[in-house]
Design brief:
The complex is a heterodimer of chains A (471) and B (383). By secondary structure, chain A is an alpha+beta fold. In chain A, 41% of the residues lie in helices and 20% in strands. Chain A contains 16 helices and 16 strands. In chain A, strand 6 and strand 7 form a beta hairpin. In chain A, helix 10 runs antiparallel to helix 11. In chain B, 39% of the residues lie in helices and 13% in strands. A 10-stranded mixed β-sheet of chain B has the order 2-1-3-5-4-9-10-8-6-7, sandwiched between helices. Chain B is globular, with a radius of gyration of 20 Å. Chain B has a single domain, classed as Alpha-Beta Complex (Amidase signature (AS) enzymes), CATH 3.90.1300.10. Classes of the chains: A alpha+beta (471), B alpha/beta (383). At the A-B interface, loops of A face helix 6 of B. Bound molecules: zinc ion. Zinc ion is lined by residues 20, 23, 25, 38-39, 41-42, 146 of chain A.
């Protein structure tokens, strides 16, 4: 029998705010040292009262606007009760009854073209701390407690693991380019609801929920494993499926049921009396809308029209730094495709050597466009351009300065090049012989020697032509 | 008037803040409560801390950790104010214990409108109804101190926007109050006498006194009991032995750490409140208990607002008796909630209430000045 998979997703995203959701501590668990980024409020000490960080609401609304949600003008916080040492108050402040955004829609790529995924709701909540196990003891780190999160809940609209991955990648791109979240390791966590039904039927199968996965790789593996487990159960009667919560074990690549104790909790939700309902009026909403970043869809369309490949688009839109730089360099008159190559290949290459990534790129559009222009106008060759870029990224040396100091800004005419070509030929007679006896590779060696002599100046096409003529 | 005592549910930087509970043994506050800051800024001297019953849940403060009770019950702060050891005292009014203590000691206590006094720095239990109030020997003094501690505070999300409040005692003549006819006849003869005396005293100063009927005293008390226990159960769940305060010596795993610490750390009354509170919040009961209580809160607020269209205040007893005898903690839960029928409405709907001459007057929101004026008139007539 053929089966259809039905998947719904709950994605927790850590918001990119300066401070935590209900206190003034730095957001984002800003410190490496345990318990360095805490105050009496986020440590659960008596006497402190939560005061909502306005920025959290604005980012949550922005996320809702990006996902085409209805924005609630009246939104409230609820308390969720459970005991765990990483939860200092023994309750989490979250939203149950009046979430900030509802009824959204996001278009994703699927095997059958584009599909719409319905967003049930987005709600705000605080994160919990972290336990560090050391031998007999467990230590608690509260740096992450009260870091703001949004949870994006979809309807069960996914039909394949690939759709889920496309959705998650799109969410990540949107949130990063929109300044909602860095979405780096651990800042995006997923709960996946999965069931399987015979193709063509409407009734939903028995559902299992796989909790708290933070890497995309695990999510994908867990979904594939779980689908197969459900199909096997239905097909071969291997086990009886029950509605349950499961975890994914990265080592074995399997999911396993959580103990009853962990799942049977009654969280005793109730409205938080310390936090008055939040009213979002027209003025505030308009302000948030005005500051909303360019919608990712619009940006993608623009990139496609500029001839940028799908792979490149995926990388670009997930980086606010890259999209900003690209748009500014293009505005300065450079070609979009050419600029993308300089950013994604050349700049990233330099960054990687220093153990850094695309988001660490801190160069101005002015400098990058200067390099690109010099190369495309053949004022310097590509290799010199790369060297200038490396100097710019690594040492902050401006392109003009670099080219002057490296001596490659001299005006070359063909007689300069001819002199070098002739010198190389006379100095390397053995290679010239080899070339003449049919070893084509030898030509490259000669060309390289010419370029070295010229210290990167001169148009490679011209040098090549001149070398061929003189051999 | 200079010296003010601070109840143990209100925090002073560096001082012990144990809320009368074993579970907070040795806990010292890292900061001053907003009311303490304001008291200091207004030039008052803090005379010390007064003992409270565990989390302020009991009748008048009789079940403070480590304290023994014998004979007649009194509240520590009320006793100190009455005895002249301090001029006034601040205490959290959550379940009427401060108002009852004031009545027993024959002094004044004002529980202000919810949101007019910051709750920053109090050991919070029932966030939606607790409020810091003032004990003093008379209405005038209580008004002065309340003025000093009132006003907006950014650190409390439930604080109202008004920057400051002015309270005055004026002539009460021409005022109009309502007395609730007690259908269940819960108050004893001495209490009835006190009610009569106060009524007569008010009449003598030109206040009209009518008798009205209220049919929601009991549901209002039950609603507050439900909300209060639910919120308290939630708020004190942070006292788990992990971070500060008491921790059990013996445990083999995290569950035992929680269970043993909390078993040792809370008294029987608090445990009863926790059980009751977690029950009313449980999935099966939430709609019938918690949600219904919120509805009752709205109905009571509307009904009281109607009464205040016609009357300046509603006069009621504060306690069923004029004296409480020491009793066993096993009986506390029942006793406290039976008595709180007289005190629940102001906490439930956030209106002010003043205790004076052993009786209570409830007023409309922000009408503290009317209550002070009536109380001052009543007090004068009793002397
Ligand atoms: Zn904090």
């Amino acid at each position: 029998m053929k089966y259809e998979t039905v998947i719904g997703l709950e994605t927790h995203v850590e918001l990119n705010t300066k401070s935590k959701i209900f206190c003034a501590c730095g957001g984002h668990g800003a410190s490496e040292e345990p318990n360095d980024c805490v105050c009496p409020a986020c440590c659960g000490m008596p006497g402190m009262l939560p005061v909502t960080n306005k920025r959290v609401i604005e980012l949550a609304v922005t996320a809702g606007l990006m996902l085409n949600c209805d924005i609630s003008r009246y939104t409230t916080f609820d308390k969720k009760n459970y005991y765990y040492p990483d939860l200092p108050c023994a309750y989490q402040i979250t939203q149950l009854n009046h979430p900030i955004c509802t009824n959204g829609l996001v278009s994703i790529k699927s095997e059958e073209g584009n599909r719409d995924i319905r967003i049930k709701q987005i709600h705000m909540e605080e994160d919990a701390g972290k336990l560090i196990h050391e031998g007999k003891y467990s230590l608690v780190d509260f740096n992450r407690t009260s870091v703001p999160l949004i949870e994006v809940v979809t309807q069960p609209d996914f039909r394949s693991p690939q759709e889920v991955m496309n959705y998650l990648n799109k969410l990540k791109s949107m949130f990063r380019s929109g300044g909602i979240s860095e979405c780096e390791n651990g800042a995006m966590r997923c709960d996946v609801n999965i069931s399987v039904r015979p193709e063509g039927t409407e009734e939903l199968g028995v559902r299992s929920e796989i909790k708290n996965m933070s890497s995309f790789e695990s999510i994908e593996k867990a979904i594939y494993y779980e689908i197969q487990r459900h199909i096997d159960a239905l097909e071969y009667d291997l086990e009886e499926l029950v509605q349950e919560t499961r975890r994914f074990d990265e080592k074995t690549g399997k999911t396993f049921a959580m103990r009853d104790k962990e799942t049977a909790a009654d969280y005793r939700y109730f409205p938080d009396p310390n936090l008055m309902p939040i009213l979002i009026d027209d003025e505030w909403l308009e302000q948030i809308m005005a500051n909303k970043p360019v919608a990712v869809d619009e940006r993608i369309d623009y990139y496609r029209e500029s001839g940028i490949s799908e792979e490149e688009i995926t990388v670009l839109i997930s980086s606010q730094t890259a999209t900003k730089l690209l748009e500014e360099v293009v505005a300065a008159g450079c070609d979009a495709r050419e600029t993308v190559k300089w950013i994604l290949i050349e700049a990233v290459g330099v960054l990687r050597k220093g153990g850094k990534g695309l988001d660490d790129l801190q160069i101005s559009a002015e400098d990058l466009s200067a390099i690109i222009k010099m190369v495309t106008e053949s004022k310097i060759n590509r290799n010199s351009g790369k060297a200038a870029l490396a100097a710019l990224i690594e040492e902050g040396i401006s392109p003009e300065e670099y080219i002057k100091s490296a001596g490659i800004d001299r005006k070359l005419d063909s007689s300069d090049i001819l002199a070098v070509v002739q010198k190389v030929i006379s100095d390397n007679q053995d290679i010239v012989e080899a070339y003449k006896s049919g070893k084509t590779k030898a030509f490259q060696a000669l060309l390289g020697a010419c370029m070295r002599e010229l210290k990167g100046a001169g148009n490679p096409g011209v040098i090549k032509e001149m070398l061929e003529k003189n051999l | 008037m200079k010296k003010i005592a601070i109840d143990d549910t209100i925090m002073i930087k560096g001082e012990l803040a144990q809320a009368g509970s074993h579970i907070l043994e040795g806990y010292r506050s890292l900061f001053d409560a907003e009311v303490v800051t304001r008291i200091k800024n207004a030039g008052y001297e803090i005379s010390g801390k007064t003992a409270t019953g565990e989390f302020g849940l009991d009748l008048v403060g009789e079940f403070s950790y480590g304290a023994e009770q014998k004979g007649k019950l009194h509240g520590d702060a009320a006793l100190q104010v009455a005895g002249g050891e301090t001029d006034a005292a601040l205490a959290v009014d959550m379940n009427g214990s401060a108002r009852r203590a004031a009545a027993l000691s024959g002094i004044t206590f004002i529980k202000p409108t919810y949101g007019t006094v910051s709750r920053y720095g109090i050991i919070s239990c029932a966030a939606s109804g607790e409020q810091v109030g003032v004990y003093a020997r008379g209405a005038e003094e209580a008004a002065q101190v309340l003025e000093a501690i009132s006003g907006h505070d950014d650190k409390d999300g439930t604080s109202l926007p008004e920057k400051e409040y002015k309270y005055r005692t004026e002539a009460a003549a021409g005022g109009k109050i309502a007395v609730i006819r007690d259908p269940e006849d819960k108050a004893d003869e001495d209490t009835k006498m006190k009610m009569e005396d106060f009524k007569e005293s008010l009449k003598a100063s030109g206040v009209t006194v009518d008798e009205i009927e209220l049919d929601f005293l009991s549901p209002a008390a039950t609603a507050w009991q439900i909300l209060m226990c639910a919120e308290t159960c939630n708020n004190i769940s942070r006292y788990d032995g992990v971070k500060f305060g008491h921790r059990a010596d013996n445990f083999r795993n995290i569950d035992e750490l929680y269970i043993n610490t909390r078993t040792e750390g809370f008294n029987f009354l608090t445990k009863a409140v926790i059980l009751y509170g977690s029950d009313v919040l449980s999935k099966n009961r939430y709609k019938d208990c918690y949600e219904k209580s919120l509805k009752i809160r709205r109905i009571v607020a509307d009904s009281m607002a109607k009464i205040f269209e016609e009357y300046d205040a509603v006069l009621t007893p504060v306690c069923s008796k004029t004296e409480y005898e020491a009793y066993d903690i096993d009986e506390a839960f029942g006793k406290v909630f039976e008595e709180s029928e007289f005190t629940a409405i102001p906490n439930l709907i956030g209106i002010p209430a003043i205790v004076s001459g052993g009786v209570q007057m409830m007023g409309d929101k922000y009408c503290e000045s009317k209550l002070f004026s009536l109380a001052a008139a009543g007090e004068r007539g009793l002397k």
